[in-house]
Fold each of these.
Amino acid sequence: MDAKIEKSLIKAAQRGDNSALAQLLQQHYHFLRSYLIKITMNKQLAEDLTQETMLRTIQKIQLYQHKAKFSSWLIQIGTNLYLDDLRRKKTETKWQLQEQARQSLKWQLQSREMEWSDTLDALSHISEAGRIAIVLKHYYGYSYDEIGQLLAIPSGTVKSRVSNGLKELRKELLQNEEA
Amino acid sequence: MKKRNQSQQEESLLKEDSEQDIYELYSSLQQLEQGLAEESPDLHWFEARVVEGKQQVKKTRKRSLVLFCSIATILLFSFGLMLVSNPLYYLIIQIGGLLILPLVLLDGHKRRGDY
């Protein structure tokens, strides 16, 4: 979307224009949903979080201050909601749910004749913090400072999360190869 | 010299490995995105969600306002009663409140998370 059009839509939405807000949400829906699928590796959870993020956006649109891209603001809200969800779930339940979600995601990809690669399998096994940092850095191309701002952590912590995440990923890939 | 050459070779191999990993990661994620892509719902669906969301906000605000008014009434009534019956306790609570106020304000700023 053109930056100028987006800015005018945001301003109209902040003035209370429902149609402008609906257009903004529609334009970013696909981006937000696919980001959440990548960090959660769980389609159902990603869709629930997308709905919840949209609701938060409707409630908090007045707080958006144009300092960062609107899409980055959505990423920030979505990531925080995912981290809250993780804190609420017990470790054992979390593991079981993640395993079911992984199988379901694999099946859905394969049913569309697409490959569930070893890398995706390894990515779904690493820690959530590492996965979020890796996806933001190496898929969306955010800098360490930008990720630090999004996640409200120092950029040094982001660097170590990316590096540890990649190490975990390599370890998982190696284990898969050996198996 | 030989050791340095060896470590440089190892470093460049590691870098190549890492670049390869990142390339594979990127293409796998791209494939995942393409594989699970779905069309966005139409604009009417989003408009309905916006209206629902705003109604929910209104409800929450009303509930918070009622709660705030009820607590304020109870507090004012209790403090008024305390002021008449035991002014010293009243003074101690007021001073304590003034000391806590900056901490509460600082915490509020941190939690708001404006972006």
Amino acid sequence: MPLLTRTFIKTALVYFTIALLLGVLLSLRMSNGLFPVYIHLLVFGWLTQLIFGIIYWMFPKYSNQLPRGRESLGWFVYGALNIGLILRAIAEPLQALQASNLFGTLLVLSAILQWLSGVVFIANTWQRVKEK
Amino acid sequence: MPRLSVWFVSFSLIHLFLGFTIGGLILANKGFPFAPWIWNLLPAHMEFLLLGWMVQLAMGVAFWILPRFRSKPPRGNVNFVWSAFGLLNAGIVMVVIQPFISMSWLALTGRFLETSSVLLFVFSSWQRVKPIEV
């Protein structure tokens, strides 16, 4: 299993744990307003990140020289996804609590980073989706 | 990867793009509200990412990697799974566009198509969940 996949999966497992702990707090009504963060830690931080890592590892080869496409793009996806998600987890509840230009800017930055992670992932994966 | 899986996975990546784009716009709108109407796209965001991306990807990969039959056809009745592919994507489109047009029956029809798709997929995959043939 390549290093990038291991990093994706281990990070996804961390988000999985954090999301479920947050779910407990939500059930105890100790963290009102964090439901969107909870959902995105679970669906984006855990599931989507896990899928990205597995696809990078197991999909058909791009070419003999670059079997998994450009690794640097894969690391860019990892960085953009996680920085974007962490920014969101911090700024979204704070913006809901007390809107400010700073939190608003962080949310826009988070949106751009998360969107870029998806676009670059698709670009790096598209040509690996092919018939044998 | 068989041709049908290529279609499933390619469409799942298209849905991923659409879902991420809408999600990015909704999140940016939380930062600096520039288009309140963007919230109307929240159901489309969820539909694209849960059914269009994750479910469709899982179906495509399952069709690819589940154990094959020794007898022909190796992946069972492919026509059923092609139908599942068509029904799923038609259903998603119907559910997504319903809020923007005055045809309330469209979402229900879309859900019916999605459910039919999954039933067809389950029916055609069930017997492929088996030990390796000796």
Amino acid sequence: MMQIAMPAIDFDVVSPLAALVATGLVILLVDLVSRRASRTVLCSIGIAGSIVSFIRLAMQFGQPATTLGGAFATDRFSWAFDAIVLIALIAALLLSLVRDAEDGASPAAYAALLVFCSAGGMIMAAATNLIVIFLGIEQLSLALYILAGTGTGRQASHEAALKYVLLGSLASGFLIYGSALLYGASGGIALADLAHAALAPSLLFVTGFMLFIVGIGFKLALAPFHVWTPDVYEGSPIAVTAFMAVAVKAATFSVLARFVYVVFGHDAQALAPLWAIAILSMIVGNVGAIAQTNLKRLLAYSSIAQAGYIVLALAGVNGPGLSTMIFYLAAYAFMNLGAFAVIALAGDGSESASGIEAYRGLFWRRPWLAVCMTVFMFSLAGIPATAGFVGKVLLLGQALAAGAWGIAMAVVLVLGTLISFYVYFKVVWAMFAPADDAAPSPAGNAIVPWIAVAGGIAGVVILGILPQLFYALVIT
Amino acid sequence: MRLIDVFPFVPLAFGIVTLFVPRGSRWVRALPIAGALAAFVIAVVFAASYFANGGSALTSSIHPWISGPWTASYSVRVDAVSSWFVLLTSFVSVPALWAAWTYADEARRRSFMFLLLAFETTLLGLFTAADLLVFYVYWDLMLIPVFLLLTGYAGTAEARRAAWAYLIYNGFGGLVLLLGVVGLVVATHTFEVVGQRFELGPATQWWLFGAFAIAFLVKTPAFPFHAWMPPTYTQSPPPLVAMISGIQSKAGLYGFIVFALPLFPDAARAWAPLMLVIALVSILYGAFAALAQRDMKTLVAYSSLSHLGLVLLALFAFDVTSLPASLLMIVSHGLISGVLFIMLGFIEERVGTRDLFAFGGLAAKAPRLQSLMLVAAMAALGLPGLSGFAGEFLILVGAWQTQPVITAISLLAIVIASVYVLRLYQAAVHGEYRGPADVRELRPREMLVVAPLLAAIFFLGIWPGWLTSRTTTPPAFTSLQALR
């Protein structure tokens, strides 16, 4: 009989993940025991568990470690990305507390799925071989396919779930096929094994890498693999969209960063397709956003462009690049979570506030909400004194120092940003429209989701004005 | 934390307090003016201290800000050049804010005042910044208050469209500048570039200067980049356009003086022929376009294009008098366009139109308005004894030394200036009055609003040496002249 040696598990290393999985189970158990547990209780358990996980994560910071035979690593490629996933989880749970938030009529399943989904994201960030990467991506994706459809009352939500599951499975197919080819080309599944094959890439290796990038590109919503994004973002419940926009990107970028740094380690020729899809994403995302009148679709296109921006951090494949990527992802997380929180608050969780018309003259009716949204829009546009601006300066510096592809990407980033001025200022323009022709809007009564808005504002402003507080932490 | 660190934020702080006073309170009027006055007093203290003692702990301050792949510091100062811009900003802002509160209804007045004060803060910040990143931060932030003021307060559909023209043009300029700024930092690894010399290759310099120049020309604006100017100037409420034309239009010229010319001297010489052509076209195009306008504000807007083209001509003539002459013209134009736009606001309020030929004859109805308008108009056409003449004369004499042909052609614009300014003055003031019957004479408040600006125009016209003798040409400029 064949002996399978189980690798030892260091539970200290996996404790943030374990805390999250335990939280999900507790939510399901509480629901089982007490059938009347309210959404507030269940989401609060989720938030508490996320905080525990976050504390464990903070304790690991600065002490890289591996376990499970080296397949699971906590290091500079995972800490910050994990933290962003957890922040997105907390924000999504907070937004689920708005009065009319959708939860698929089963708050326990909804909250537990969000938590398990985040656990998948943390597995991705820690994965050092192709199998664990795939495992993490599937854990994340399967939960999200269901969550996208939890707006049970709306046709658009069903459509979103179906689109997401079909195209997502296709992407997983590309990913696993690419992984297989990479394994064939290098003889190992660990990223470190691939590094040897990358020195003199065979046709098999390059093909495998391309397929792998296609799969990753789907998850990141990079053009030309972005077509699912606007529909899925629009159809999913607001809290799920917010989570999707931030956590999925953070986790997938951690995979991409680790792959590029460990396998290539330098600005290799083979990375050219990655730069090309970054350029395409910046154009498609910003141009596509011009005509959008639904704010969730607008932010979907925006996230396509932003994903393109973040790829610039990899240009040159060097130490400051990773810090730049983490900084921009953190900025991206705060401004997107904040913007989605405003959408949730403006409509009390219903879809009524997704259309840009709902924001006409908002400043004169609900000035605080409008001012917060303005800050998030400015940050997305990269206006100074916000996190988005510092992030863009870092990205441009990274790209301009990285040769011809880098300069090309920097120029496209600047052009894309100009187009995006129209996109984001259009929202501001609507909010500051003279009040007399404004539609009445319901007065908000939710207090708790304001925590998400306030957190977003704090993040955007602190990262924008005192970036050193954060940058000193992530500098590698 | 020194006073100079927080100086740019003084108007903003008053603006924030204004937001929170009860609607309709007297403080909504008083606080903004107090804020502008406070900023002006501090600016005078700084300038006086600088000119008496040179640079000191009072007039400059530096704190580390960001250190990563590059370093940036929160570095602020007033010096021989920036003093004049800071003084101009804080001086013109006082009448602008004093004139402002009649232009917004009670419900919106607080945020209107706040945005004007925030705009002043970005301008003061821009002119005190000694770090390129800090400079850029204010450069871009300037967009916001103007965009919001045009969007939410000017009220007309044309104004809301003008907001887009303003945003897209200046946003484009800002982003090109960002490319240049970051491109420079990739070479220098620091944003603390003021007063430093970097050895940059000619190709690098050429590209970076180009990026800086495009941004600065958009903001000024100069000929091919001026399309945002007529709608913005025409649609802005008078206090806002007084600040845009009087102060913000100097930001690009300031950028040339403090950043582009000293940092990239070789590229500046390479680009000079093109810049001189741009200057000449702006001077002539602005003058001819002003001749053809019926809208009073658009007319003055085009005259701005023409006059600021003269400053560009001076800067790229690389004559020994370039810098003092440019500064005199910059300050003088700030005062004149400030007073003109505020006065045009008074007239529009009275006759209900900006159409030059729709009313006429204000002299009979409002003799005080007429006499003040006369002074402003004479200053604009460059009558000797007023500051406009001193600036233009010094520029033309200086530029003649190195660029006689271009200077000779630009003289044409001085002649045309007399025509369009006199046409403006005559059509508005002389002839038969055809406007609304209940036209009012200038109120004492309105006369006091413009009085300091007119006094300064007289003062600089009679004693231009007061300004020019305090201007020392920095070493970077001397080297440009030697290279000529």
